[in-house]
Amino acid sequence: MEEIYLDYAATTPLDPRVAEKMFPYFSEVFGNPNSPHRWGRRAVSAVDDARDQIASLLGAASKEIYFTSGGTESDNWAIRGAAHALAKKGKHVVVGATEHHAVLAAAQLLEKEGFSVSLAETDEYGTVTEDRLAAAMRKDTVLVGVMTANNEVGTLQPLPQLSKTARENGALFFTDAVQAAGILPLNVNDPAVDLLSLSSHKFYGPKGVGVLYVRSGVGIDGLIVGGRQERGLRGGTLNVPAIVGMAEALRLAYEEITTRRAHLTSLRDRFIGKVLQEIPGALLNGHPKDRLPGNANFTFEGVLGEELLIALDLAGVAASGGAACSSGSLEPSHVLLAMGRTEAQARGGVRFSFGKDTTAEQIDRAVQILKSCVERLHLPR
To answer: Can you list the alpha helix ranges (DSSP code H) found in 118-238?
Structure first.
């Protein structure tokens, strides 16, 4: 049985070129980057080079790049760290209704700590419009968080307008760019953002390492204490091999971004077109055009998403119901509910996401398997 992996939004394989770059830092250059001797200096030199490279690719300054354990930590740090640092100015935060659970959970924790949180609603495509954001803001709003691209349905947000609205009203603007990194050419100055999160394993880098960008002049409280690493704001010994790997993976992504994006767009359009044409009752979720190149999210009338995912897996096709961190949950997708889908439709969403090594032949085969599974699940029970 041929296995077809269509869950690249959950994670990507480590690029062999990245693994080669990382290897010496597991054994030869093994020092703690905070140690004062030559072994430590070699390690910290590698970290500094990686920081410089990532900063350059993002249009940032090196001192604005902080290394974390991944997107979840970066999201938590951005939301809670910025809110607490600005608490004397105001205690109101706005986040998009379709944000990743890491952002929503951090915002909910803020509420328990005495802050007020509002959700910026979306339209039927999952887009937070400028008017909707403005309606959610108040005079005491200090932070706005809206993701660059939705992790479930792939909708791209109008960041220039949203950033302008937030910053003109005196609030910081944070964007979770985890799903967009390596696919879209991110630059922290276009549009202007104050905080931005990345996670390495989404663009063929190692798992367990991420970045939080913090614009110079923006105050942010630390989240993890216990050491003076990362300029005193994030305790813990740095994962040197992973940091080196992340920088290399991002460099390769930017170097190949035009080719990768064209390939993913072609696969996405091929998949969406065939599904809508060949499978009755298929409903595309997310914006029809303003969406990630490698994302296709569908609901199939009368079919439970959980059952469909099991059937696909048994047939050799990997897909997901949305965020990988939510797998196993029986709750309907909060993203689809926010878009106005019914509870039944929100329970039926299935995300297919494609990678740089996915082929057109795999797309065609996956559509046929999907069609067979949907037809079988529609049979009387």
So the answer is: 130-136, 159-168, 229-232
Q: Which DSSP category does 346 fall into?
A: H
Non-local CB neighbours of 250 within 8 Å, separated by 6+ positions = 53, 54, 57, 181, 182, 198, 200, 203, 205
Q: How far apart are CA 24 and CA 281, in angstroms?
A: 52
Query: Angle at CA 283, nearest 5°, toward 280 and 284?
Result: 130
Residues labelled catalytic:
325
344 backbone dihedrals φ, ψ, rounded to 5°: -65, -45
Q: Which tens digits make up the pLDDT trace of 180-224?
A: 999 999 999 999 999 999 999 999 999 999 999 999 999 999 999
> pLDDT of 250-287, one tens digit each?
999 999 999 999 999 999 999 999 999 999 999 999 99
How far, in Å, are 31, 93, 110, 150, 220 from residue 79 at the CA level? 32, 9, 8, 17, 9
The values of phi and psi at residue 251, to 5°, are: -60, -45
Bond before 191 cis per omega within 30 degrees? yes
The span from the CA of 37 to the CA of 31, in Å, is 9
Task: Name the one residue in this structure whose structure tokens are 């990382």.
Answer: 22
Q: What is the CA radius of gyration of the chain?
A: 21
C-alpha dihedral sign at 280, 340, 321, 208: positive
- Rounded Cα gap, residues 272 and 2, in angstroms: 21
- Taking the C-alpha atoms of residue 114 and residue 137, their distance in angstroms, rounded to an integer, is 17
In contact, 9 and 71? CB cutoff 8 Å: no
∠ Cα 269 129 217 (to 5°): 105
Query: Rounded CA gap, 178 and 87, in Å?
Result: 26
Which residue in 206, 277, 208, 240 sits closest to 30, CA to CA? 240
In this predicted model, what pLDDT tens digit does every residue of 123-150 receive, in sequence order? Answer: 999 999 999 999 999 999 999 999 999 9
Residue 350, H or E segment:
strand 350-353
Which pLDDT band holds residue 30 (cuts at 50, 70, 90)?
Answer: very high
